[in-house]
Amino acid sequence: MNYDKFLNQTVKAVPPSGIRKFFDLAATMKGAISLGVGEPDFITPYHIRDAAINSILDGGTQYTANRGLPELREEIALYLESRFQTRYDPKTEIVVTVGASEAIDLCLRVLIDQGDEVLIPDPSYVSYSPSVTFCGGTPVPVPTHERDGFRLRGEEVRKACTDRTKAIILPYPNNPTGAIMERADLEEIAKVVEEKDLMVISDEIYAELTYNGLRHVSFATLPGMWERTLTLNGFSKAFAMTGWRVGYICGPAEIIEVANKIHQYVILCAPRMSQVAAVEALREGREKGYEDVVKMRESYDRRRRLLVDGFRQMGLECFEPRGAFYVFPSIASTGLSSEAFCERLLKEEKVACVPGTAFGSRGQGHIRCSYATGIEKLNQALEKMDRFLRHL
Amino acid sequence: MEAWVTCIERKGCDLVTKLEGQLLDLMQEDCRLPLEKLAVMCSSTVDEVAQAISDLEERHIILRYQPTINWDLAERERVEAMIEVRVMPQRDMGFDAVAKRIYRFEEVKSVYLMSGSYDLLVLVEARTLKELALFVSQKLSTLEMVTGTATSFVLKRYKEDGVIFEEEKPDQRLVVSP
Q: Which of A330, B8, B15, B58 is the most buried (most CB within 10 A)?
């Protein structure tokens, strides 16, 4: 049967993820070392797993409130205020979602009408652009440059605005570049946001992972920006809880109310056991100075230095990423495209990286390497890449 | 006097610098990392790292570099026991003198001063059960300060020094993910 006429044409027209191809290729390679993984190599701390197990044993298997367990929302509010100085009312300004992924989708569906344009820094996480398209909007890439450390510049944002521009996504610390935005950088963006009357979707899932003593600045803390910002976050990266699927959106009550309307019809609620685990992560964190998070960050930081140094030693240009857990070296000097480089590296040396182009056209000439992998494996991968470059 | 009292009295605190702390963390995981890599990861120089390591060795903070071995797989015959020992502490010397007498035996791998219902915990290793039994009955129990022993044999080791012995589970993450 030909299903073409039944399929939604908008969805059908969206090309498959550039990551998919490398996943398929790498999955067939036995013993490949992967620098292509976008999740922590840590396992969720035991006390968090234990809390979830106990809640299941105690019979905690029901739905929760649509917006999430009240104690979880209270913990989230305390967490955001103490870590990032943003204030949200747990009763009306927070909704707990199935991972930050649902949060991205909800934010866009709440804001975007047919034909609205959404600005997305290029390169960025793979799901923003298709998600905009799925809700009838038009994704507009805003180029970022290596010379700026892949930070988003106000001038570029201004240039990309039209009468249809409704929102901008701010994904910092950034996947895949590892770029962060400091306060002065954000102030530049805030000016344009004000001037062009935009809403901001600030995806701060990597907020805990910043290095060199720099702390993440939450966009909603900028003067006049709280009202215009939907802050997304979750537990996957900071607490190594990817498989639990817990995230959240914080923002003005009127918007959260509408987001919750979609959430209650489509999802009902995030899984209770995952929410209980999330409560444990934040409560224990609050009591013990977030020692799990600090330990993981220190470990990432050492590996970050190792990888950046390794790439520079082998002659690849590599700006120093100061957030997330990715390094985004330039492979332009090899004359290969990002895709060709990754494909050959995988086939010849069994090292999997992701071509920068999977994250947008500005990723051309770069590859994304994740350092969420053990030191021994990182060292092996560096040796193999060095050999690969010498034989090109 | 209970054992923990002297223990607390004697507990000093070894201050390590930030660099030394980072090195200890990294080397506890893998002490074969080359100096150059250690230097990069601690954002320091090779010379500073080498100096810090030799300082740590001199201060007896790093005692030796030893692999963690799963002897069960090496199939070498070997018996281990944990022996709870009650002793009579000696005037002026407390428990140290008796501990010293005990730890000098070759069969003894570790000795700890404990709080609770006994005084010293002694980890002993021998080739056979008989050898171990003879050690307890002829060498340990006969020491004049030892007033009693309780021996428990190790049947299976699950985790040691933070290393879990069962076969490592493969990475369960997707090979490539966004």
A: A330
